[in-house]
Design a protein that fits this description.
heterodimer, A: four-stranded antiparallel sheet, about 30% strand, B: mainly alpha, ABC transporter involved in vitamin B12 uptake, BtuC, globular
């Protein structure tokens, strides 16, 4: 059974239709990439899935439960984490405070401590800087913090919005490496990216989005060889 | 010696401003709105005690608790009925004007129930004044209780925000509502809690104010409310220690101005402080520069 199913989704900003009837699914354990240009509607889809926006039409089904009408803060408790575009760490709080806010919905203190340790292991830099104010971290470190914060809720699925945006090439490689690790750890990943090449390299399947519609879908490896994709997104 | 007396009175009045300013500053920090009805919640708090003690003969302690409960309920209700439907409105001016409307509503409701004649308020502080330096420095019981209350409130509020989950949720919501939601924080619930705390504190401030200056009318809360707002801006709106510093400085300036310059001009001086602060440091003493999000 698919972990996350999107059926005929339509989303509006006022009178402007951003998403024009989109359906796709994410199976358990997969890494799914949503690629497309600026303004294609990638972020809108993620915001609609996690309830920051509400759809005009269509359904979002997560683990068999329709979540289109459920509030954002409750969806988190159902095992979905969202790393928002632009990272949006709490800039005036410390790294540790940010991470603990990620575990806001969890109650078991011992479990949270254990989880924190495993996140420090994955992101040693966060441990080194745990008392530093998040706003003073570099962009790459903030991205790591945003990911670590999302992982603190121990999600079944993690939605990542442009994790490589604005980062130096070294950090981009590091971030994609981490996404692969997260996936290997058993977390399902829905990845939104403009860096189509990198995204397709680590994804199982991918959907290509153009102005609110899915225009192509398939195995990531096949899309990498697709001529249209090569021309439009890979610059070849 | 009279100078020391004035300063002590100033700190006492300033402590009341600080407690009121907390309500302004927390609501601003978290809901990004100026709740101009906050001053009138003070008046409702004081009237509840007046009603309880002078009209119904309640035990003062019971009346104080009742007053805090009434104000908390009132704060939550105002937020729910008047402000929540406007959250996400195109202009923040809409909420501001609504707040002014709520303020007039509360004043006129009190006018309708209790009439316009000022009531004489019985002090809720049963302590005798302390005399120091051979009777030259007099510290009233009200002053002691006011300053102590202010300190206790500041310390417990700071601890609440630092140490508890709802406190951390407040910090998260004040920075980024969307990201806070993604952490599983109930943003509306957090805003309600903020209104509840602010309004409960307003009740305390109202009782302390009317114990020190025992005249109560439907407009009692309006001027202290505005001055506490100035104190919040002075200290840096959104900042809790800023509310304390701003409140106490403003209280001292007002009392010293009244004593040494002119009692008619004391309020003018207070408002000049506001203008001066806005010109020199618009973010206030401890205020942070608001950064545009990229």
């Amino acid at each position: 059974m698919a972990m996350l199913e999107i059926h005929d989704l339509e989303v509006f900003y006022g009178v402007i239709q951003a998403i024009k009837g989109i359906s796709f699914k994410v199976n358990e354990g997969e890494v799914i990439a949503l690629i497309g240009a600026n303004g294609a509607g990638k972020t809108t889809i993620l915001h609609t899935i996690t309830g920051l926006l509400s759809p005009k039409k269509g359904r979002v089904i997560f683990n068999g439960i329709e979540i289109s009408k459920i509030k954002s803060h409750k969806i988190v408790t159902m095992g979905m984490a969202h790393v928002p575009e632009g990272r949006r760490v709490f800039a005036q709080l410390s790294v540790l405070q940010n991470l603990m806010l990620g575990a806001f919905t969890r109650k078991d203190k011992a479990e949270i401590e254990k989880n924190l340790k495993s996140i420090y292991k994955r992101f040693p830099r966060l441990e080194e800087r745990k008392n530093q104010i998040a706003g003073t971290l570099s962009g790459g470190e903030q991205q790591m913090l945003a990911m670590g914060r999302a992982l603190m809720s121990q999600p079944n699925i993690i939605l990542m919005d442009e994790p490589s945006m604005g980062l130096s090439p070294i950090f981009v490689n590091e971030i994609f490496g981490i996404i692969e690790e997260v996936s290997a750890g058993g977390t399902t990943v829905l990845l939104v990216e403009q860096n189509a090449k990198k995204a397709l390299a680590i994804a199982d399947r991918a959907y290509v989005l153009e102005t609110g519609k899915i225009t192509l879908e398939g195995k990531a490896s096949e899309l990498l060889d697709n001529d249209e994709i090569k021309k439009a997104y890979l610059g070849e | 010696m009279s100078f020391i007396n004035y300063v002590i009175n100033g700190v006492s009045l300033g402590s009341i401003y600080a407690i009121i300013a907390l309500g302004y500053t927390m609501v601003y920090g978290i809901a990004r709105m100026l709740n101009f009805a906050h001053g009138d919640v003070i008046m409702v708090g004081a009237f509840t005690v007046f009603f309880g003690v002078s009209m119904q003969g309640f035990n003062p302690f019971v009346a104080v608790l009742l007053s805090i409960a009434v104000c908390i309920t009132l704060g939550i209700t105002i937020e729910f009925i008047a402000y929540r439907p406007l959250r996400g409105a195109a202009s923040s001016l809409v909420v501001l004007i609504t707040a002014i409307g709520v303020s007039y509503f509360l004043q006129n409701l009190a006018l309708l129930i209790f009439g316009a004649n000022p009531k004489s308020f019985t002090s809720m502080v049963p302590l005798n004044p302390i005399r120091l330096a051979g009777g030259q420095i007099v510290i009233s019981g009200e002053t002691i209780v006011t300053i102590l209350s202010c300190l206790i409130i500041m310390i417990s509020l700071t601890a609440f925000i630092k140490k508890t989950k709802p406190g951390q949720a407040m910090l998260a919501v004040s920075e980024d509502k969307g990201a806070a939601q993604l952490m599983g924080i109930n943003v509306n619930g957090t805003i309600t809690l903020t209104f509840a705390i602010g309004s409960g504190l307003a009740a305390v401030a109202g009782i302390l104010l009317c114990s020190a200056y025992p005249s109560l009318s439907p407009y009692t809360g309006s001027m202290p409310g505005i001055k506490a707002f100035i104190a919040a801006v002075f200290g840096g709106i959104g900042s809790i220690p800023g509310a304390l510093i701003g409140g106490i400085l403003l209280g001292v300036i007002e009392i010293l101005g009244r004593a040494y310059i002119s009692s008619q001009l004391a309020d003018v001086i207070v408002f000049m402080v506001l203008i001066f602060v806005l010109l020199v440091k618009p973010t206030g003493i401890l205020g942070r520069k608001l950064q545009e999000k990229v």
